[in-house]
Design a protein that fits this description.
heterodimer; A: alpha/beta; Amidase signature (AS) enzymes; eleven-stranded mixed beta sheet; globular; B: two-stranded antiparallel sheet
Amino acid sequence: MEIHYLTAHELKDRLKKRELSCAEIAGSIYSRIDEVENKLNSYIRLDKEHALSGAGEIDKLISSNAIEISDFTGIPVAIKDNMCTKNITTTCASRILENYVPIYNATVIDRLESRNYILAGKANMDEFAMGSSNENSYFGPTKNPWNTGRVPGGSSGGPAASVASGEAICSLGSDTGGSIRQPASLCGIVGFKPTYGRVSRYGLVAFASSLDQIGPLTRDVDDCAAMLNVICGCDGNDSTSIDTAVPDFKSFLAEDMKGMKIGIVKELMAEGIDREVREAVQMTIKMAEEAGGKVEEVSIPSLEYALDVYYIIAPSEASSNLSRFDGVRYGHRNMQARTLREMYQRTRAEGFGEEVKRRIMIGTYCLSAGYYDAYYEKAQRVRTLIINDFKKAFGKFDVLISPTSPTTAFKIGEKIEDPLTMYMSDICTIPVNLAGLPAISIPAGLSADKLPIGLQIIGDILREDNVLKAASSLEKAIGFKDKPGI
Amino acid sequence: MERISKDDVKHVAKLAELEFDEKDVDKITTQLDRILDHVANISKVDTEGIPPTSHVMDVKNVFREDEVKESVTQEDALKNAPDMENQGFKVPKID
């Protein structure tokens, strides 16, 4: 296997045996980028020289025994461009932040730096993480490495496409309604959204603060667990990060699922889900039974309203969070405006793309006088019902299983003119964010036209252990080894 | 039923400090109307006695010691400023 397609743990073994150097790994990633990036557009910003010289420095530190080789030492990681990197532009794929240079690192970046990782580049995304196809990027859409006429999913389309195509070994994305899991599913890789608050959001440009969570996109569940070990933990700079012990997530990787109780979510295996996707999930259910799991169907009736609740709460929070982009302290400013109000309005009208403006409008409307009770507050009450329904299900099951996405990767341009249809792409992932639960997407196979299908495994609050146990055991049973043709 | 009118859209745009030209107002009114009509589904749900979610977990308020720590320097804070004067952010006239 080419170096650029190895996992982080395979590379770590080779680094330890001195069979490879960090410079060779970074070199291999960058030759792959030279080869495929013009077809994919996975990145907004690349800095080859910086990556290669950084890798050389780490090699020196290793050979002089100044540092130990730990997980992700010398590993090129793509970072979604909504996480602040000190002195490196962080655009959120928006014109309004096109030239924004953060003066500090996100906490997850500090944590990766403590492992001496290599920044492969800042990865493309839907503007402000709003979208399911990566078509909403100011810097142009990212393409799916399995078929460049198809979308990679979104909003972490760049982080997913880069890992799937060998332009990075792994990546960090953010997930507000499925933005890690859905692109992971459409690109045939592993994507994990931890429990709300497991990972500090400090330095993550806020979209919907009660739903946002950072997580890894990787080639296998082992790398996913290793990345969780690096990024999880309480942080004084994020008061919503959970003050609880961080386990060794790698210790949950398991061979089988003996005794595990698995619920198949009835509402997410219904008609709106493609037949091929349902069949692939059915296959994995058989495998789960063979691996010792006890499988039963479970109904979560309130899921019927999850999409509606989400498309009130997320835009409401976004309209408030994005009010900070006003052209005063950072970002784009319209220089022709003569008064302050005119400057605000023109700056925001030119700085934000269509989908972002649409969501700011929905959110502002739902929070405005006379509509707050009927929309925002009502949605938060229905959200409580969804949380309660999940609590009930987890009284009986260790994990819940569903497809990650109702379809495989759709065509570029297919849904972009119809926002509601696009919103439906996240029907399986959105409920998980509303309830703050941990969930993973793992590849479950390929469709007839050679596009990846993803399986979602959901755990109870803080029960990443069950999710990883089921995922690692099913990953072995499924044995997905395919790579995109690009 | 029309949930949102063109005038509503213009009013909300003002609240959100956005501006749209006439052609875009038509388009966004139609789109918002469809989206709001869909999400208004939740009005059918009986939520009598159900409290609104404030956080997905039972959390307590988070306190910290009130210590003097290093903070952002003036120079750093102004690094991304589109316009500045006398070590402050400069904006057009407030009308």
